[in-house]
Amino acid sequence: MTTSAPPTLASHGLVPAVKFLRTIDLVKSFGSKEVLKGVDLSVVEGGTTAIVGPSGSGKTTLLRLIAGFENPDSGTIELNSRMVAGDAWIPAHKREIGYVAQDGALFPHLSVAQNIAFGLDRAWNPAGRRANARRVAELLDMVSLEASMGDRRPHEISGGQQQRVALARALARKPKLMLLDEPFSALDAGLRVATRKAVADVLHAAEITTILVTHDQSEALSFADQVAVMRGGTLAQTGTPFSVYTRPVDPDTAEFLGDAVMLEAQLQGSLAMCSLGGIPVRHATLQGRVRLMLRPEQIRITSDGPIRGVVVDTVFFGSETTVRIRLSPVPGLAGGGEIITIRHWNASMARPGMELNLRVIGEGVAFPV
Ligand code: ADP
Ligand code: MG
Fold first, then answer.
1. Do residues 66 and 152 share a domain?
2. Is the CB of 215 inside a 6 Å radius of any atom of ligand 1?
3. By alpha-carbon position, which residue is closest to atom 18 of ligand 1?
4. Which of 233, 251, 269 is the last residue of a domain?
5. Ligand 1 centroid to 59 CA: how many Å?
6. Mean pLDDT of all residues belonging to the chain
């Protein structure tokens, strides 16, 4: 008979999970350019965090500070209950961190097996050779690569396979924290999704705490259990993928994380009056004139919908069609009658000039004007 571990308070989510990594007020400049302007990030043990932000926002710099390749100007980094930067200094090779860079950075003159073994013992000594070979085979298997791949050179395998080799090399030392810096961005769309899923599965199975840096919002939302949105050297928002997507803190974050419909609205109590009718708003702290944000998928074309709009034009994308719709102005509401863009699966259901009925599902988010 097998017995499983008794349930604990933590397993019921009743006590906060252990913070595995904590950066406090990290600041880093290069010359006169302040790249990180006070970054506070916490990552729980075994968790998967995605840091997402536009190019140049400081994502790689933050990863390099965590890895120990750079020293912060001020602020502290705690890793696995140890201070590693700030009031103390633990060098990169003693932080038990794996790092996979954007291009994989494999050694072109070494075979796949030798690249992976490089992550094992520093000295590839004869006594350890058999054990190393076994471990390399195990690592190849872990990242779903055939053992025969071991003899190939990096240029003889595909981009997706190269990224898996880079991951295997980083896994070789059994890191406690894995840092992935845009590891999938060089891959084409189909391969990117498959490789991302394979990598996520490997890291999850090995229970390795992971931070993924990406500028791709759908990658961040699908990969991680925590998303941190970086902008201009600070984290604009940190939360679950669902909360940052549905309740972004500001319009820039809203638009960075996905398509957004922005409307003029008049907020009274928890109801925002706009060209789409009265939309409920949760935690309505603002009142009066606001910008209301909805996600396009909240707006449905349906024959019994209470709101009317006229199709401006459509664009066919195969699995979906985007439909631009001009809404009717609302008497007494300044700036109403906007053109919104929504999506529909049926390409033949909307033609320019057609009048459609719409219904809004769920709540909106109010931002100051
Ligand atoms: P991201 O990864 O989000 O694209 P980076 O952290 O690479 O952003 O870079 C943020 C900014 O810092 C950029 O403007 C970049 O040019 C600058 N930067 C990064 N590393 C250095 C460096 N070693 N020396 C000078 N400037 C740097
Ligand atoms: Mg970068």
1. yes
2. no
3. 30
4. 251
5. 8
6. 90
Q: Give me the torsion for CA of 53, 54, 60, 65, rounded to 10°.
A: -50
Q: Strand 299-301 vs strand 355-360: parallel, antiparallel, or unpaired?
A: antiparallel
Distance of CA 137 to the CA centre of its chain: 31
Atom 19 (ligand 1): residue with closest C-alpha? Answer: 61
User: Looking at the domain assignment, is residue 134 inside a domain?
Assistant: yes
303 CA from centroid of ligand 1 (Å): 51
Residues 191 and 322 in one domain: no
Ligand 1 closest atom vs CA 54: 3
Q: Residue 280's domain spans which residues? A: 259-368
Q: How far is the CA of 61 from the centre of ligand 1 (A)?
A: 6
CA 266 from chain centre, in angstroms, equals: 33
Q: What is the pLDDT of residues 56-104, one digit of tens each?
A: 999 999 999 999 999 999 999 999 999 999 989 999 999 999 999 877 6
pLDDT of residue 131 exceeding 80: no
Q: Whose CA is nearest to atom 15 of ligand 1?
A: 56
**Residues 255 and 244: beta-carbon distance below 8 Å:** no
- Has residue 4 been placed in a domain? no
Instruction: Measure Cα distances from 292 to 22, 38, 217 in Å.
Output: 34, 30, 21
pLDDT at site 2: 44
How many A from CA of 59 to the centre of ligand 2?
5
Domain boundary, last residue among 204, 223, 251: 251
> Closest-lying ligand to the alpha carbon of 181?
2
Give the residue, 152 or 195, on which the prediction is more confident: 152
Name the least confident of 8-17, 26-35, 147-156: 8-17
* Number of folded domains that form the chain: 2
Residue 3 has pLDDT above 50, yes or no: no
156 and 108 within one domain: yes
Establish if 3 belongs to a structural domain: no
